[in-house]
Design goal:
The protein is α+β, with helices and mostly antiparallel strands. The protein has two helices and four strands, in the order ααββββ. The model has no long low-confidence stretch (mean pLDDT 87).
């Protein structure tokens, strides 16, 4: 009988640890779903207002009117699509970051096509919007 008490306590401790891990996983998954739903909502809002074919100048004016700061970058989301123009990106959230990065942010990426004959990887007010997409960018990584 004396041996059964330590075993019972070990089993109880194991059950508590497993329960805590399960609760933590559930909480993290719920938070992930909530963040993803929020990102999709923002994407829908901008996709309904900013249609393919609009000029960069119009898109950037709209972003400014909404008080949204943006930056221009190359190849964050459209590298596989062969885009010829810089993308405008707007930060809309952050994801948990891996230990080896300082940031892991979520952006709306406004992908543009340059007019024929324009310089590659430059920004031109007459670039046309190809699409609005979500993209992630981990920065400050080792």
């Amino acid at each position: 009988m004396a041996r059964s008490k330590p075993i019972r306590w070990l089993l109880i401790a194991a059950v508590v640890i497993v329960a805590l891990l399960a609760i933590g996983t559930t909480i993290r998954r719920r938070a992930e779903r909530k963040r993803q739903a929020s990102y999709q909502s923002v994407l829908r809002q901008y996709s309904t207002k900013l249609k393919p074919g609009m000029q960069r100048g119009e898109v950037e004016a709209f972003l400014a009117s909404q008080g949204r700061a943006f930056e221009q970058t190359c190849c964050l989301s459209s590298v596989k699509l062969g885009s010829s123009a810089l993308e405008d990106i707007v930060k809309i959230g952050s994801e948990p970051k891996p230990w080896y990065c300082s940031e892991n942010d979520v952006y709306l990426a406004f992908e543009f096509d340059s007019p024929p004959g324009a310089a590659v990887r430059e920004s031109n007010a007459s670039d046309t919007l190809r699409r609005v997409a979500l993209t992630q960018w981990a920065r400050g990584c080792l």
